[in-house]
Amino acid sequence: MNTIGVKLRLTIFGTSHGEGVGCVLDGAPPGLAISLKDIQRELDLRKPSVGIGTPRMEEDVVIPLSGVKDSRATGGAITLFIKNADKDSDKYKEFAFKPRPGHADLTAVMKYGDAHDIRGGGQFSGRMTAPIVAAGTIARAMISQIGVGVGGYSMAIGSVVDKEEHPFGDIVHFGRGNEVRAASEDMEGRMRKEILDAKADGDSVGGIVRCIATGLPIGVGEPFFDTLEGELAKILFAIPAVKGVEFGAGFRAAAMRGSQNNDPFVISDGRVATSKNDSGGMLGGISDGMPLDIKVAFKPTASIAMEQDTVDLRSMKPARIKIEGRHDPCIVPRAVSVVEAAVALTLADLCMRGGFID
Amino acid sequence: MNTIGVKLRLTIFGTSHGEGVGCVLDGAPPGLAISLKDIQRELDLRKPSVGIGTPRMEEDVVIPLSGVKDSRATGGAITLFIKNADKDSDKYKEFAFKPRPGHADLTAVMKYGDAHDIRGGGQFSGRMTAPIVAAGTIARAMISQIGVGVGGYSMAIGSVVDKEEHPFGDIVHFGRGNEVRAASEDMEGRMRKEILDAKADGDSVGGIVRCIATGLPIGVGEPFFDTLEGELAKILFAIPAVKGVEFGAGFRAAAMRGSQNNDPFVISDGRVATSKNDSGGMLGGISDGMPLDIKVAFKPTASIAMEQDTVDLRSMKPARIKIEGRHDPCIVPRAVSVVEAAVALTLADLCMRGGFID
Amino acid sequence: MNTIGVKLRLTIFGTSHGEGVGCVLDGAPPGLAISLKDIQRELDLRKPSVGIGTPRMEEDVVIPLSGVKDSRATGGAITLFIKNADKDSDKYKEFAFKPRPGHADLTAVMKYGDAHDIRGGGQFSGRMTAPIVAAGTIARAMISQIGVGVGGYSMAIGSVVDKEEHPFGDIVHFGRGNEVRAASEDMEGRMRKEILDAKADGDSVGGIVRCIATGLPIGVGEPFFDTLEGELAKILFAIPAVKGVEFGAGFRAAAMRGSQNNDPFVISDGRVATSKNDSGGMLGGISDGMPLDIKVAFKPTASIAMEQDTVDLRSMKPARIKIEGRHDPCIVPRAVSVVEAAVALTLADLCMRGGFID
Amino acid sequence: MNTIGVKLRLTIFGTSHGEGVGCVLDGAPPGLAISLKDIQRELDLRKPSVGIGTPRMEEDVVIPLSGVKDSRATGGAITLFIKNADKDSDKYKEFAFKPRPGHADLTAVMKYGDAHDIRGGGQFSGRMTAPIVAAGTIARAMISQIGVGVGGYSMAIGSVVDKEEHPFGDIVHFGRGNEVRAASEDMEGRMRKEILDAKADGDSVGGIVRCIATGLPIGVGEPFFDTLEGELAKILFAIPAVKGVEFGAGFRAAAMRGSQNNDPFVISDGRVATSKNDSGGMLGGISDGMPLDIKVAFKPTASIAMEQDTVDLRSMKPARIKIEGRHDPCIVPRAVSVVEAAVALTLADLCMRGGFID
Predict the structure, then answer these.
(1) Whether B235 contacts chain A with CB within 8 A
(2) Which residues contact B163 (CB under 8 A, 6 or more apart)?
(3) A353 touches chain D (CB under 8 A)
(4) Residue in B73, B81, B122 nearest the CB of D65
(5) Looking at chain B, which subunits does it touch, using at least 3 CB pairs closer than 8 Å as the criterion?
């Protein structure tokens, strides 16, 4: 369903081609400073880029409907709304009986029947991530008060993989300044080319978002089941197109030996730390004081310009489909903001549940 | 916390060295056949193997405390209990101030203080997965009634990776008959060797469990947030030592182009299917009728015989630790049953939530 | 927090004097007919009446923001918004340090601090019940499809108590046609006088709302803890000013003997029924097929024209307070719609949880 | 279902005539002192009394299965188990097709089918309250650490109503020392007679439990929906035989005027208080610092010795039923402990949610 979180609870609503999209964020501490400017800045980072993305210009202006007074949270539920621009929805009608490969058309129609709003993907649209980004900005403000920072970047776009470690400051500063959300100038150029090449072919590419969270105290996470990893993974897999989530060494750990994978404990600045971070900042489902290291795999955009095989659900016969219009050849740069928001929301909720906030 | 699920709700309790471990499973349909023999068989598959595992012989005999009468679920909460054998707990005392690398000793002590039961890892012990396996057997019975089968195998052990596709029948039949839970005779030999080599070195290895679920109807999963992927990932990351979860092409999808990754729809046996399954059986957070394809990365066992670097929390100085006793050089074969159980529990719950069961 | 329900989940937001109030209703079956006209009619029943209420004219026009397309539920979250009219909020500032007796001023300020939006009572305002009524109309449509009807009336206003049993049709038809929501003409006159007398004295009166639900199948309710009674009581006590909830004989049952209180089972129209209904339609937390009989006690409106004793939180000294403006001398007639909505929402959710709907 | 609570989460299991009854209490703070002696003492207060109750002697000995080590909570889930004595279950078989008036036989059989364990009422048995009392003792220990005390007494037994106000100390000390749980010697005698009279007639009586909670800080309760009243009412209505719940003036408030019902604020001992407590310690769903005043109406025991009308579900014809064996002529004295436990559990959970504990 459309609600997630325990103490900080997010409910999202809306569709791509209806009135708009929005969210209700419940549980933010009364008195918290709410900056609409900050929310707008994050929403702008999620917007499609002219250069590499689609020329559809979304005017994502956030409108607060409740819970904010004099730029502060009142303690009541915070509602944020983002209006949709007028859109041409006619071209989507066909998808109700000729499902687009890689999209939720088939599963949505099977689950919700003919009442499903298929325009723009309806409630399965990537546009549903805009309110997540808006709410995530508030969550960021909450955790920044206890010194937690969250920063993501495009770690891979198609075959271009960034294998370097970057200082957190570079991720935040350089990464937010370029439209592919690369962490270095070299990567920015190569990733941009990878995207433009796919675009030129009428195709799309996937990629990996890496997200680092620094400053988290030891003890965040509520095992056995409400682990730090599990709560993060649950919301991350709700982001459209996510196919894999790993922490620290992740799948690489499977090929390791214990002597190699175990992170030795050391004393650093008078505090317990580990000399490396293959655990990704988590032990036993609980933060261990090292930076969280999260990697999220995105499949390539399902909407491509090439004609594809599908079936006609009316005749139950093979059919061909060609998706008109312009679509992002790569959603990864835009997804960086969404991953950051999802991580911030989860950390804020778990910090509240563990008594680290409030 | 220790409860998961909405309509089928699992609560686990216990510790490695206390009275025992157990679970309460709430919501199983009244009248469901409950076979203690089946539960016992699954628990036996989770037990350490003499050949490749540790010689600790756990007598995991399941005792039903409630909810079962005349081998049927009554509709009340089902409680299953598994007694612990007497164990030597003295050697664990040291870990409260000299945390074992890769273990939850540090994070548990920081979160729960000196009341934490550190014996055998306490509530963070891998032994907590025994009641998950027991409950999972009941979930399997539930979903098998609507034709869903769940089968897992060791897809990778250390550097040995099984890249072949195996018929579901082979996975279930061959895989359950060998103690490394390999899907082929060739793999069985090579994986066994990989484990024994690590053991001979006083070391451990990680691996990957792959789990397939067949027969799932279209429509299972409750987006936006309670997706099939997300609910599976949440419980899978609760299994100790899991570092990554992916579906279908997973992280490989990140390097693909859309034209390559999209699964074309086809008509097969008069029903809609896809001609390949890079989506792993899910579109938009909902099952699409193809087999679920789940991969779970396990890090190598943290307990190794080699001496390791740690810190002494009393003096806050570097220290060395040597973990006595015998430990599984590889938990992956045992984890196969746990992954299967976790998948079965999640599918049963989501099938109930979606109205496919009951 | 601001969300309630499991399968049909309601989130409310807003404040009395902010942008507006609204709700997100998640889980309504896709395809369900949604009539804005019906919602508006229910909202109008909740509005203050010119004759007996306050002359404040609230323009409660419902605006759908999501989840409805072509007058049908899409399967996505349904968002309804009701704008606030401009209001004079200045007079409320004083209440932050001179709390009004019987109001939530003190507790809200202690819990939420100076960020609490005290204008109009903020998130504690009776106006928060408007979105509950709006959502309740959708819940009514859901349960009416399985033959369940919900009807309430003013059973007591101050000292005027309606001790008669009324046919369900009278409750619905007569009760909705008079502004005190009385179930008979006699009661209408006497209750109106009771309210006007209190009003003339600058005072207020309380009362009892009785709500009947007919046509509920046997089996609704999820014991042990999610009982029909318990789920109803939880949402009913969320309605401002509710001080008591009872079912069937309720508190009268405490003075009865078992031979008198037990409802004998009989065969009626070929089905099992009871010859009387002191149980109020519930046995063991589960509906028994008889009409639900719910009584809800409301305290008198806390805002009265008379000067009252309070304290000044700044000086921590005794103080006097006089509440300006016009307030409902009795909220019971308006509360009938709210109780009906709360009952409908709870029944719809429990019917979904029990598999009676969908 | 069988779980309640958010931060302090109780799951109960078992049946009257199976292996036993028990509970899992999750979330108790690590390090909390757990006294099995205290738990046993509370369980003993819930046991039937020889003098006025049934001569069935239940040996309710609590066995801790997890979560307690060296008399302290470890931070893991606490499991408590109470074995059932051998019982004659044969006489219950008839109730599956000849439901006892006032019991859950009919509704349980309709909901759970023939798998329902009807012996002793199965999961609907009053015996399910034993683990609630056990868990409640732990909750009491939690809230007593912040100065909260909970005390209940029999306020009414049948027609005998105790209209006096009693000092909290009297309730706790005198009330726990007499088997009718009366608050005064006079009431003890009259209530005992009322019970014995009913017993002599082969009948039963109902009554009212009043429960007071002192020392609660201002701010406990999570509106809009998770109010102090609503959370209390939800668990109280789960107690078998409860038909009404009210707070403060309760149903009396319905007949009051606002000038009479509003509790004026005063300064008392340098703190804000109210000069009377018709609100019952709650304003806007939040504790206001005054004692909580809770009244719970219990219907008379449904099992009576007299022959009663019922139906035969096999023939769908009228039938007569005579319930053999001895049953409590009044459960109210035993229910006092259960109400206290339910209140303590709810307050402990809400205090954790509000940050007042831990």
Answers:
(1) yes
(2) none
(3) yes
(4) B81
(5) A, C, D
Answer yes or no: is pLDDT of D94 > 80: yes
Q: State residue A127 phi and psi, 5-degree precision.
A: -65, -20
Interface contact flag, D117 B69, Cβ < 8 Å: yes
How far CA A295 is from CA of A242, B223, B246, in Å, comes to 10, 22, 11
Q: C211 or A51: which carries more pLDDT confidence?
A: C211
Q: Give the per-residue pLDDT at D45.
A: 92
Flag whether B263 is in a domain.
Answer: yes
Any CB–CB contact under 8 A between A89 and chain C?
Answer: no
Q: Please report where in the chains the tokens 């046997």 appear, as a residue.
A: C218
**pLDDT at C123 exceeding the cut of 90:** no
Interface B:C, Cβ pairs < 8 A: 6
Alpha-carbon distance B245 to A279, whole Å? 15
Helix (H, G, I), strand (E, B) or coil at D275: coil
Considering the domain boundaries, does residue C186 fall inside one? yes
Which residues from B are below 8 Å from D20, CB to CB?
65-66
Burial of B97: CB neighbours in 10 Å, binned 0-12, 13-18, 19+? middle
Output the pTM of the full model. 0.97
pLDDT score of B133 more than 60: yes
Q: Is the pLDDT of residue A51 over 70?
A: no
- Domain boundaries, position A59: 3-353
Task: Find residues 43-82 of chain A whose CB sits inside 8 Å of chain C.
Answer: 64-67, 69, 72-79, 81
- The reported pLDDT for the residue numbered C53 is 62
pLDDT tens track for A309-323:
999 999 999 999 999
Distance from CA of C135 to the nearest CA of A (A): 15
| A299/chain B closest Cα distance in angstroms | 5
A7/D353 touch (CB, cutoff 8 Å), yes or no: yes
Which tens digits make up the pLDDT trace of C1-41? 999 999 999 999 999 888 999 999 999 999 999 999 999 99
The whole-angstrom separation of Cα B340 and Cα B338 is 5
Q: Are C245 and D144 contacting, i.e. CB atoms less than 8 angstroms apart?
A: no
The chains found to touch C (3+ Cβ pairs under 8 angstroms) are A, B, D
Of C6, C7, C355, the CB nearest to B358: C355
Q: Residues 171..190 of A with a Cβ closer than 8 Å to B: which? A: none
pLDDT of residue B121: 82
Instruction: Chain C: give the shortest CA distance to residue D126, in Å.
Output: 10
Closest CA of chain C from B101, distance in Å: 40
In-domain check, residue A344 = yes
**pLDDT value of position B324:** 85
Of B296, B293, B272, which is closest to residue B282 (Cα–Cα)?
B293
Q: Is the pLDDT of residue D26 over 80?
A: yes
Question: The tokens of A74 are what?
Answer: 């009142």
Model pLDDT, residue C88: 75
Contacts of A12 in chain B (CB under 8 A): 224
| CA–CA separation, D125 and C46 (whole Å) | 41
Query: Alpha carbon A177 to chain centroid distance?
Result: 18
Q: Are C146 and C352 in contact (CB under 8 A)?
A: no
* Distance from C-alpha of D355 to C-alpha of D358, rounded to nearest angstrom: 7
- Residue A358 belongs to some domain of the structure: no
Instruction: Between B17 and A38, name the one with better pLDDT.
Output: A38
In chain D, how many domains are there?
A: 1
pLDDT above 70 as % of chain B:
97
Q: Residue C340: which CATH number?
A: 3.60.150.10
